[in-house]
Amino acid sequence: MGLDRKERALVGHLEGRQGLMEAELAALVAQNSFTPNREGVNAVGDHIQAELQKLGFRVAELVTGGVGRTLVARRAGDPTHRLLLLGHLDTVHPPTSSFNSFVGGPAGVELATGPGVADMKGGLVVVLEALRALAAASELDGRQVSIVFNADEETGSASSADLIRAEAQDAELCLCFEAGRMAADGKTTFVTERKGFGRMKLVATGRAAHAGVDPAEGASAVLELAHKIPELHALADPALGTTVNVGLFRGGTTANTVPEEAMLELDYRFPDEDTQLELEDALFRLSAKNFVKGEGGKARVTTVLKEHVKRPAMKSSEASERMSARLVKWGADLGLPLVPESRGGSSDAAFAADLGCPTICGLGAVGGAFHTDQEWIQRRSLVDRSRLLALTMYRFFRL
Predict the structure, then answer these.
(1) In sequence order, which residues have a C-beta less than 8 Å from that of residue 267 and are 6 or more positions away?
(2) Distance set, CA 356 to CA 173, 174, 314, 320 (Å)
(3) Could you tell me if 147 and 73 are in contact, meaning their C-beta atoms sit under 8 angstroms apart?
(4) Are 311 and 156 in contact (CB under 8 A)?
């Protein structure tokens, strides 16, 4: 198909922006936005809000008191091409981590590292830069675009899920800016399907006692959950595409005290609703099962489900498959070989897809080592993915 004159001018505007994009990304990465760090999340949101307002968006804030502010931005326009852009302001990296800055390196160094550089502050910069290019070409005028950048994606979007669903209800297309990945033969990926996600917190309560003087008087909450952990992990079934992981386990007060309380948090993943329901039923039954017992088999420790958040699986549809095919072609027009993929990680794109809105994810900067202290992006992908988004929006508005 190739690019016409207006398209060449649009994407050409983004060439030469690499340094500016990296500088903006470095500033965002330097501001810690670990989900519980509300002030840090809000500081990132303040920058994004100011930039969107410069582009003519009306920006509102969702304030819950529990987490940072979620941003909702809108431009009114043609109701037949309603577009929703999704992203998140928070990261998994705590303020105490030594991994706390953007490292881009000198010219010629392909990769850059930093906390949240791929997941997903690089994606935020991609969105801002593409919107700036479209605005400079007057291509946002009369276009209906909504944006949700939430504050709690990394913990399941408990405060923002309903808002995302509401914005997706009337959208013709949803694009989400989690990171893309490297693939074979120089290709990079975007995402058309994702596993669903759940997170549970179990709190066990037993009875404290002196571990040396009268241990039999105690009932160990740590022992109760320790018995549960291997059985919880055993619920995972690779053949069905399910996973279960106990990622946090805490309990007790001192080594010489039978622990009265203990807590674990687990993560589970599933490929579809039927598998989700089956796995959750097994998780609930096992959570209620008693291991630490007294005379007559009476349970001595109680376990209570305190928190439970989840996202549905993101499934492709005929409409999203058509959009996927367009993206591959449009990427080729830019010299960007793309390939769709399914991914085990969850994202807010699932809320939109669950409503039947055609949804594509993984359109942010290309990176890897997510959630680790080696998280990286391919530096050139900042420009490449902003060019892809600008062209995608330009052509979508003309479908």
Answers:
(1) 197, 198, 199, 243, 244, 245, 247
(2) 10, 10, 10, 9
(3) yes
(4) yes
Per-residue DSSP letters for 4-72?
-HHHHHHHHTTTT-HHHHHHHHHHHHHS--BTT-HHHHHHHHHHHHHHHHHTT-EEEEE--SSS-PEEE
What per-residue confidence (pLDDT) applies to 77?
92
In a 3-state reduction of DSSP, which class is residue 295? helix
Cα–Cα distances (Å) from 54 to 120, 135, 137, 388, in that order, read 22, 10, 15, 22
CATH of 5-195+314-396 given 1.10.3210.10, 3.40.630.10, 3.40.50.2000, 3.30.450.30? 3.40.630.10
pLDDT in tens, 88-147: 999 999 999 999 999 987 777 799 999 999 999 999 999 999 999 999 999 999 999 999
Average pLDDT over residues 243-270: 97
Global pTM? 0.92
Domain segments of the chain as ranges: 5-195+314-396, 196-311
Number of CB atoms found within 10 A of residue 342's CB: 15
Exposure letters 37-60 (e unless 16+ CB within 10 A, then b): bbebbbbbbebbbebbeebebebe
Question: What pLDDT, on a 0 to 100 scale, did the predictor assign at position 201?
Answer: 97
Q: Is 362 left (phi over 0), alpha (psi -120 to 50) or beta?
A: left
Comparing 361 with 108, the larger pLDDT belongs to: 361
Q: Which tokens hold the place of 215? A: 């241990």
Confidence of residue 1 (pLDDT cuts 50, 70, 90): confident
pLDDT at 193 (0 to 100): 97
HSE at residue 164, side-chain half, CA atoms within 13 A, is: 32
Fold category of 196-311 in CATH: Alpha-Beta Plaits (3.30.70)
